[in-house]
Amino acid sequence: MSNLEVARSLELLNRRPSFDAITSDEFQAFLGVYCHHIPNPMRDLDTFRFKTMPAACASRDPKYLEHCELIRLAKWMYSAGHRLVTRSHRRIPVAAASNIAKMRRNWRGKVMESTCEAFEIYAKNKNIPCAIEMIKQLQGVGLTTATLVLSSAYPDDLPFFSDALCNWLGLEGLEKSVSGYMRLVEGVNTVRKRVQSPSSRYRRITALNVERVAFVIAASESMQVRRLSIDIMQVELQRQLGNGGGSVAVFAARRTQSHDVLPTAFAVKVVSSLNFRVRYLQMLKELTILGQLSKLPLIKNHFAQFYGWKFSHGHFFIAMQLLQCDLETYLQQGSGYNAREITWNQRRPGVPLQRPVGQLIEGLRALHKAGFTHRDLRPKNILLDGEWSLKIGDFGISKHVIDGLKTKMSDAPETWGYSAPEIIEAGASPLQTYSSKVDMWSLGCIVYRMLMGRRLFTNLNDVRQNRRGNRLKPVLSLRNSSTTKVSI
């Protein structure tokens, strides 16, 4: 795909495309966008579809993913008492962990056979009650996984609906709704028939490619949230405020011409084209969350304001409210090697800790009420405005609460100090789940940092000990200390 074709495809996306009016030529253009701008884990569905949540598990070895998913399927079939399971097979799930070849021979064919049978019965309307009952049995692994197995057998007739696609289309929890799933299948088949062409050029319009185009269109629709019309040349980047790593930087900026949305001074996150493909999903997710949060009442009191985004000259720009600093920097004295951590009371002796903690609680309450979990709440992601009020920022890895499964977090020490054990161990166990309560753990660690002037957990082992019930001894007892004075 040439640069000119890519540019034309991106221009089509800027026109708010929809399946209601898509043409065959546009279908091919969007498919090209998928192949050139979607990260490899999503595009690998062609050659390797036997895995769940490919975007979230991108860093894992494919064989490991297949291994875990097969074990999960085997354990589900064992516990559900599937009609194809016999007594001679009862020890297979235990042996599967050490002998994946044996597990494949005994289980993969049966899983695929039973899954295909259930959906074929349902699709042909021969015996609806029987099919529904069989599909209910599949809920042990979810219809997404069942569809994945079926798709590997019939790639041209039924696509693999990834979790990412369902989320962008607003279909969270779809795996629990048979009727919702079938409506989506009917919709995809309708689109495929409408854009299908006898020409050999359009023979690639399979159900799997329809899913890919649906992902591109859904992503572009989410990106229409506050897309800035200003020319990037009318913005002057000033000092650098931070560096997110991987070709991501945050700058203080100033517009050189009048604009109806942007204030004179604002902050802008810049993602280089070198890293755009890797961070594509993360950028879309952050834009979607920012767009939804911007509609909440009293948004200015809890979160950094979101002004809009712009894709120009091979760079991705997100314009945000320009704030004074982050909480981590604010609770430090000195700089460089001479920097030392201080408490909130030392920095703001006249302001009780009750005030900033209350602001964080209200912000989290609004975030959770909107259906999101932050997952990376730490002093670096908490910002202070001109009145030194706290605001929550950086929603790059936030998720909808219902989508809080199988997430691998960063191994950076900054994350260890504030992330809940469920978040950290999600990287080691593909079955680890968590809820919005993980943000409350992070909040407790932040309050401790503000109160004591040090982190509660300094390494990953401390967090794991606490997870196992080996409670850590407090570093300093406030009750017995005559030198430490705090205002709460």
TrEMBL record:
Annotated Gene Ontology cellular components are:
autophagosome; cytosol; phagophore assembly site membrane
Subcellular localization: Preautophagosomal structure membrane
Q: Which UniProt keywords apply?
A: ATP-binding, Kinase, Nucleotide-binding, Protein transport, Serine/threonine-protein kinase, Transferase, Transport
Q: Which reaction does it catalyse?
A: L-seryl-[protein] + ATP = O-phospho-L-seryl-[protein] + ADP + H(+); L-threonyl-[protein] + ATP = O-phospho-L-threonyl-[protein] + ADP + H(+)
- InterPro entries in the record: Atg1-like, Kinase-like_dom_sf, Prot_kinase_dom, Protein_kinase_ATP_BS, Tyr_kinase_AS, Tyr_kinase_cat_dom
The UniProt entry, under PANTHER family, shows: NON-SPECIFIC SERINE_THREONINE PROTEIN KINASE, SERINE/THREONINE-PROTEIN KINASE UNC-51-RELATED
> What name goes with this protein?
EKC/KEOPS complex subunit BUD32
The scientific name of the source species is: Colletotrichum abscissum
